[in-house]
Amino acid sequence: MDIKSTSVNTFPLHQAVEQHDPAAITQLREEGHKASQLNEANLSPVDLLSRRRSIDVALREKMHGALLSSMNPTAPKGYTKPEALHGSPWGFEILASGELRGGVNDAKGGTQSLEGEVFFSDRTPEKLSEQVTRNNFRSNPRVYSHGRGMHSSNPVARAFQHRMTQAIGGYLASGRPLPSTGNALQLQASADQEVSEVAANWLQNLLTSARNNGAKKFENVPAEQSVALLKFPESVTINFSDHHQQRFDGPALRPMLAEAAKTLQQQLEAGKAPLLAMINDGKIVPMVFGFSKIDDLKTHAIKGSLGGEAKNYSYQSENHPLAGSAKGGRLKEIELNTVQDLATLSLACLAKGVKIPADTLIRINPNGRDKMDTGAKAHYLDPQQLGRFQQQLATTLGEKGVTLSQASLPELQQMNQEIRGKDLAAWVA
């Protein structure tokens, strides 16, 4: 059946859905028609299909596949795009818990923010005036997956803090002189606070400020050398609310700073920083989880900063199991940026006994610059290929006599560095 766009028929994909014609849907998509187009009733072809009742299961699945199949030639046969995405720097923790959880980590702030909910990017319009589903369907979750922000509680900041606390501990143990401002620092504290807690809070603020003011200078600098980029006070005096003081200078300053670094490091390792980032030299491993359709998501509107039209964000209040719920939303795929990131994830999973859910497709999506420079496209690993990749990793580590389940964090960091330096492309060829 030949269904082409004319002045009368402005929604050919919708018409093909109404006529239950998967071949026409495939043809129209090959001609460039988008399944993101909304009709007069603000329904996409996918929405329209979901409302059709007089279709048997086999035909519905065939039409759904035709609407959401990938035009990417590297996609596996039968692959259909996800209908809801969730990007996070806490990918390992999500896999370990088996669900997306709202309010697990610190509030993000913002006058219009909605805390403690589970947000998704789904195939709905971002603005009421738009005639297509959201153009940033994949790009927004990718942004969130990097965990960036200005606050000391954001994942990037905490990953950096963890890397630096390890470096500071090693630097102080070496006996090298501390880079100093020459200033005397005054800190205020309540009467019941421990010195280590007060000092750890100050150190966290120091590291956050250092990163916010010059993150690039810390990049590609060996951890202990990066300590020289910081400036420490010549002395620290803590003024407690019950009017007593404690002063640290000279020989007493170094152990106080070492205890502050140790305390902050322990706080971060107790769940305040993503495990993958701590393993990966303080660098976030971004992950985007792709799900099948989730019904009955709520909408949160955020007004534009200059009074523009509000943007709509989809969410649910309950935690979302990776296996799906009565509302749908079974995990279909996990997107990572590189094979090296897959190796870091696999290392953590093997060490902690966490399994990636069965039938999950791994999507390796190069960054935009690599796509432009080399024409690289997304690469996919099915569960069997993922299994072979993880077996190769386990074999490689086993040859070194490593017992992963007993490995310390520093040992995992060393393994990660070595594994990421290998020719991992050969493992997925």
Q: What's the gist of this structure?
A:
This protein is an alpha+beta fold and 429 residues long.
- Biggest sheet strand order reads 8-9-3-1-7-11-12-13
Mean pLDDT: 92
> How large is the radius of gyration?
26 Å
Per DSSP E runs of 2 or more residues, the count of β-strands stands at 13
Number of helices: 15
Whole-Å distance between the termini?
40 Å
Characterise this structure.
It is built from 15 helices and 13 strands. It has 429 residues and is α+β, with helices and mostly antiparallel strands. Strand 5 and strand 6 form a beta hairpin. Mean pLDDT is 92; it is low at 1-8.
Q: What is the topological layout?
A:
Elements: H1 12-18, H2 22-30, H3 45-51, H4 57-68, E1 84-88, H5 91-97, E2 99-100, E3 118-122, H6 139-145, H7 155-174, E4 184-189, H8 195-214, H9 223-226, E5 235-240, E6 245-249, H10 253-272, H11 275-279, E7 287-291, E8 298-302, E9 311-316, E10 320-321, E11 331-336, H12 339-352, E12 361-364, H13 368-374, E13 379-381, H14 383-398, H15 409-420
Parallel strand pairs: 4-5, 11-12
Antiparallel strand pairs: 1-3, 1-7, 2-10, 3-9, 5-6, 7-11, 8-9, 12-13
